[in-house]
Structure formats: C-alpha cells, structure tokens
Amino acid sequence: MGVFAAMPRYFFHLHDGVVTPDHEGTELSDAEAARARAAHEALCMASESIRQDARLILHHEVVVTDEAGLEVTRVSFGQIISVLP
Fold this sequence. Notes:
This protein has helices spanning 31-53, 77-80, and strands at residues 9-15, 19-20, 26-27, 61-65, 71-76. It is an alpha+beta fold. The protein has one domain. Strands 1, 2, 3, 4 and 5 form a five-stranded antiparallel β-sheet that branches. The N and C termini lie far apart (58 Å).
C-alpha cells in the first residue's frame, strides 16, 4: 500500500478593481502548474469581459497564493493578450 503525498493547494484571486477571493482553491502539482492555470483563468476572464462589455482592462489580474497565503505569481490580462493591428 503506497503513501500518497497531498498536492499543494493554490488560490486564484481576481483583482479587477475589487478583490474577489478564491476560498476553495485548487490542488495542483507545483507553482508552474499554478501559473499555467492562472494564465488560463485570466484568458477566460478577459475573453468574457470583451464579450460582455466590448472592452478590456489590461491591468486586471489573477493573483495566486499558496496555502500559507503567500503570493506565488500574478498574471495580468495584459500579459496574456496580444493586440494585433
């Protein structure tokens, strides 16, 4: 019978003029997986913002913290969006 190590839990808080905290979090393998998830979440939220309001505020961001509440990474909408002429 093997021993399973618990995966760390990361929390994805939306900062868009108001902080919307993530109280549940998501178990992921490591900080790099958390960063990839944050980029995906930011892209989904940015896309929804454009769809609903036909605008995007580039400095809105997803801030990722670990179980201790320490910031792991942050991903702004501007970092994941490419604007082409």
